[in-house]
Amino acid sequence: MAAPVNRPAPKPEQQTPGRVVLRADPDGHFRVDATIGGRRAPMLVDTGATVVALSYENGRDLGLISGADRFDLRVSTANGTVGAKRVVLRDLRVGSVQIQDVTAVVLSEGAMDGALLGMSFLGRLRRMETSGDRMVLER
């Protein structure tokens, strides 16, 4: 998991019920403004990430963790092994594409900036296809 730079995501190029077409940013990355439980969560699409990964700040702001939580799950990232807490996101949506009960991790404080949309979401789609600077997500 690489540490993404937290920048705004472009609006989906096309959107129909259960289908979103994303366009890559100038750096070639796909960024989305996902919603978790109805709250905005900017994410970098990362097919190399096993699960959705949230920074400590994301987890705190979304009410997924508290100061007393333990981060005793060890996960490998591009920056080495860090502590994390496993959580389940009851509702994760990218445009009109919605998946319920998505496994995710909240990383320990300072371990990552931003959030990654990993395979615990992407792998549950009927279709995920990349062609050039476009990515199709279909439920």
Primary descriptors:
single chain; 139 residues; mainly beta; Cathepsin D, subunit A, domain 1; four-stranded antiparallel β-sheet; 11 strands; 7% helix; protease; Clan_AA_Asp_peptidase_C
The count of DSSP E runs of length 2 or more, i.e. the number of strands, is 11
Task: Output the CATH class name.
Answer: Mainly Beta
End-to-end CA span: 24 Å
Label the structural class: mainly beta
What is the N-to-C order of secondary-structure elements (H for helix, E for strand)?
A: EEEEEHEEEEHEE
Major beta sheet, specifics? Answer: 6 strands, mixed, barrel
Q: What is the 3D shape?
A: globular
Strand order of the largest sheet: 3-4-9-5-8-7
How many H/I helical runs?
Answer: 2
Q: What CATH architecture do you see?
A: Beta Barrel
Count up the domains.
1
Residue share in β-strands: over 45%
CATH fold node name = Cathepsin D, subunit A, domain 1
Question: pLDDT below 50 for ≥5 consecutive residues: which ranges?
Answer: 1-5
The CATH superfamily is: Acid Proteases
- Report the mean per-residue pLDDT as an integer: 91
- Helical content band: under 10%
Radius of gyration: 14 Å
Quick summary:
This protein is mainly β and about 140 residues long.
Describe this structure in words.
Keywords: Hydrolase, Protease. One of its GO terms (molecular function) is peptidase activity. This is TIGR02281 family clan AA aspartic protease. InterPro entries: Clan_AA_Asp_peptidase_C, Peptidase_aspartic_dom_sf, Retropepsin-like_bacterial. There is one protein chain. This protein has 139 residues and is mostly beta strands. It is 7% helix and 49% strand. It is built from 2 helices and 11 strands. The protein has helices spanning 56-61, 119-122; strands at 14-16, 19-23, 31-36, 39-45, 52-54, 73-77, 80-94, 97-107, 115-117, 127-131, 134-138. A 6-stranded mixed β-barrel has the order 3-4-9-5-8-7. β3 (31-36) and β4 form a beta hairpin.
